[in-house]
Amino acid sequence: xxxxxxxxxxxxxxxxxxxxxxxxxxxxxxxxxxxxxxxxxxxxxxxxxxxxxxxxxxxxxxxxxxxxxxxxxxxxxxxxxxxxxxxxxxxxxxxxxxxxxxxxxx
Length: 106
Fold this sequence. Notes:
This protein is mainly alpha-helical. The protein has 4 helices and 4 strands, in the order βββααβαα. It has helices spanning 19-26, 30-39, 58-72, 76-104; strands at residues 2-3, 9-10, 16-18, 53-55. A hairpin with a 5-residue loop joins β1 (2-3) and β2.
């Protein structure tokens, strides 16, 4: 994980982060991250390997989880449900964009 003096974290798609990195970057504690894993909102790269590591894209997810928890005062289960719904919305938006692009070629 690389950080620059401004506090920006540079992550690559192939990079993995530890649970400690997620705690540091998100504001969630290890138990909350564990609950997100148990609920399926986060997936370790290899669930059988302890300590867990995560793909770098999970940083975005845990930061979103922190915002949901703090701004909407959601409990961990509600955060997991909200993350799931946001993920489904994102997939639907991508599908609509794909279909629109396909239709515009016709």
